[in-house]
Specification:
Blueprint: H1 2-7, H2 10-34, H3 61-73, E1 78-79, H4 80-87, H5 91-104, E2 108-112, E3 115-118
Antiparallel strand pairs: 1-3, 2-3
Helix pairs in contact: 4-5
Length: about 120
């Protein structure tokens, strides 16, 4: 490295020094923009709040509620949306229950899109 510097002219050395100073200035600007220099402490992160488990219905409670609503609806039947509102569950969960429940209960008949009734 020393042999390379001895071969350079004074003008080339001044130009190299000015380039090096410019590089140092740009590095300082970059550190101030990013705000995270090598010696800058990282901000402390707050722990995420703990999630609480949702309360689940007791075994068979949803089934009993749906079957009671079906039996009360009579010959006109009841829609999945109405059941979801009355039971307080998402519509998709009621659709899923009917998809599986119709296999177990042959009295449940589908009368239209999203509409079911209880046949004795």
């Amino acid at each position: 490295m020393a042999s390379l510097l001895s071969n350079l002219s004074a003008q080339q050395l001044r130009k190299a020094a000015s380039i090096r100073e410019r590089i140092e200035q740009l590095e300082k600007q970059l550190e101030s923009i990013l705000g995270a220099g090598p010696s800058a402490p990282k901000p402390a992160r707050k722990p995420a709040p703990k999630r609480r488990a949702k309360k689940r219905a007791k075994h068979g409670q949803v089934k009993n509620a749906i079957l009671n609503l079906l039996k009360q609806s009579g010959k006109k039947g009841i829609t999945v949306k109405e059941i979801a509102v009355k039971v307080g569950l998402p519509v998709q969960r009621i659709h899923t229950w009917f998809y599986n429940g119709r296999k177990s209960f042959k009295q449940i008949k589908k009368t239209g899109p999203g509409k079911y009734l209880w046949e004795e």
